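Subject: complex prediction, re-run

Hi both,

The earlier run crashed halfway through, so I resubmitted it with identical inputs.
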Amino acid sequence: EAQVTQNPRYLITVTGKKLTVTCSQNMNHEYMSWYRQDPGLGLRQIYYSMNVEVTDKGDVPEGYKVSRKEKRNFPLILESPSPNQTSLYFCASGYGIPSYNEQFFGPGTRLTVL
Amino acid sequence: AQTVTQSQPEMSVQEAETVTLSCTYDTSESDYYLFWYKQPPSRQMILVIRQEAYKQQNATENRFSVNFQKAAKSFSLKISDSQLGDAAMYFCAYSDNAGNNRKLIWGLGTSLAVNP
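This time it finished cleanly. Structure:
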């Protein structure tokens, strides 16, 4: 089954404790992206990657890191989480060449930083 | 900068009836794509329908159809024969091919309730 998976689905942590949210897709997509969803602010892009070893900042990259060592994986790293990073996070993937620009989403990760 | 506006925070419809959700957008690009995504209580983001700007024909997917008015920059979603399972948040989104980023730009959503 074609899908994007994220782990964990739910996470409660404390300020400053490094964490990683994993994202994996099995559709051989070149493009991957992270979004965060907040009430009243909608979905905003954090980082994106056009292919292996090619990543770039989105609209709200502060406090986040990413890596793309393999085509299928695109982990989101919070080196020192803060309460303002409490949010619902989505990983998405899509084709790299100009096409429908359709993106397929993972199930989301609900993160709470105390 | 591109923007997407959904002016209806909440809508409701009777089961089996038809409802239309509104979306307007702003862009100076000529090559772009528009989407409607559904987010049920599970929070999963599900693609409902997409429209390519260069296509004049409105997209249709079963009970879902759009009214794409390019000059007016309007992209509404019509749900026919509404079902209880259609209750969800609906997001309008935009993407273009300017640069490498396939970023989706989102509206703030419309919460749709379906009454039995």
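The radius of gyration of chain B is 14 Å.

- K.
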